[in-house]
Amino acid sequence: FAVFPGRRSGLPPLHCSSRREPLRAPISKRILMNPNQIIYMTPYDHQRLRLVVEAAAAKATGWTRESLARLRGELDRAMVVDEAALPPGVVAMNSHVTIVDLESNETEQYTLTFPEQADTSQHRLSVLAPIGTAILGYAEGDEVEWATPGGLRKLKIVSVRRAPGNSTERI
């Protein structure tokens, strides 16, 4: 996983929460994140996502296991801030997000949700989906590369609209 340079200079240092034994994707398929790139999450999202990862890890195999390993990595390096302190334009749970594929120029719109709320017919994307994990914690203007079952995707986050009471609101 890579994030292109030139974003958010002068922000506070990266905060990492305590780590458990990480899930590991096969090295041939692993795309490493940029450890200098700060991503932001609310305490509610961070705590609930940790529970989701732990519950799903027990029965995960194949691509799902790799996706969980990537999400756990994002959680480990996230800066956890109160919702009121979340920088504008950051993708949090229940955010309405527009992304563009930088290779195909295709635009997609999603609401990022917890797995039980996902519904592709309603453009509700699970945070456990590769693209859901890729955009979580990043902001408008960020460009990311992320491995998906269909291959490497290069995406740009074009716009983010968070619902009021975003992370504590249950959809």
Structure write-up:
This protein is of the alpha/beta class. Helices cover about 20% and strands about 25% of the residues. It has helices spanning about 45-55, 60-75, 130-135, and strands at about 1-5, 40, 80, 95-100, 105-115, 125, 145-150, 150-160. The strands form two sheets. The chain has a six-stranded mixed β-sheet with strand order 1-7-8-4-5-6. It has a two-stranded parallel sheet with strand order 2-3. The two termini are about 30 Å apart. The relative contact order is 0.20.
Number of strands: 8
Strand content: 15-25%
Rounded mean pLDDT is 77
Query: How far is the N terminus from the C terminus?
Result: 29 Å
Q: Structural class per helix/strand content?
A: alpha/beta
- The radius of gyration is 15 Å
Which key phrases capture this entry?
single chain, alpha/beta, 6-stranded mixed beta sheet, two-stranded parallel sheet, 22% helix, globular, disordered N terminus
Concise synopsis of the structure shown:
This protein is α/β, with parallel strands linked by helices and 171 residues long. Helices cover 22% and strands 23% of the residues.
Q: What is the strand and helix layout of this fold?
A:
Elements: E1 2-3, E2 40-41, H1 43-57, H2 62-77, E3 79-80, E4 96-101, E5 107-113, E6 124-126, H3 130-135, E7 143-148, E8 151-161
Parallel strand pairs: 2-3, 5-6
Antiparallel strand pairs: 1-7, 4-5, 4-8, 7-8
Helix pairs in contact: 1-2
